[in-house]
Amino acid sequence: MPKPAVALLSGGLDSYTAAAMIAAEGFSIYALTIRYGQRHVREVEASRQVASALGVRQHLKLDLDLRSFGGSSLTSELPVPFDRDLDARDIPSTYVPARNTIFLSLALGWAEVLGAADIVIGVNALDYSGYPDCRPEFVSAFETLAARATKAGVEGVRFRVHTPLIAMSKADIIRTGHELGLDYSLTHSCYAPLPDGKPCGRCDSCVLRARGFEEARLIDPLTASH
Q: Looking at the chain, which terminus has fewer C-beta neighbours within 10 angstroms, N or C?
């Protein structure tokens, strides 16, 4: 019987690919999507399509409104930065305070209930916006926390946070997804979609996606259809 794994699924290209890669290893995927008050709520709709395409065992959608805290241009009225220098060392306003710590904690809770020792997250430390909670040292620290903070961990379960994309370029991620037969027209990446839902083409996420498809020498089905 396939081992269960809880995959954080945003509806974006990265989480879709990461979950598909772990599914290809033989895991049974339980998808967790968080509606956290993000302005790009279109990605939650995309997560439903992605979960269906992946054939997940269960897709759980949780409401956790981080707009109560604010502190990010994704959860407040702060403007999403456009045309940013992606080589800049500053952490952009699209960083949501402690988001991946919160999300992984929720995934850990569900994993413990399911009897799963494996969690999947599509973080990337190469082609990304500089978020501190996308780095290998963060993931390692969370695994240490999981071993100490849960009943299962104390009883000897070794939780593993799978980060199959963490050292991959965006182009390599897209090539891998292409080889797995993933339909990227189902995904949504834009932080500040236009009123009709089309991607803005100028936020960090749009720029990284466009550059990835260009370097992979593949056509993005989202831009091709627009």
A: N
